[in-house]
Amino acid sequence: MATSDIDTVSTSADKAKLAATGLLVVGGVAAFYLLGKQDLWLRVLVLLVLLAGAVGVFLTSIQGKELVAFGQDSVKELKKVVWPTRPEATQMTLYVFAFVVIMALFLWLTDKALEWVIYDLVLGWKH
Question: More exposed terminus of the chain, fewer Cβ within 10 Å: N or C?
Answer without folding.
Answer: N
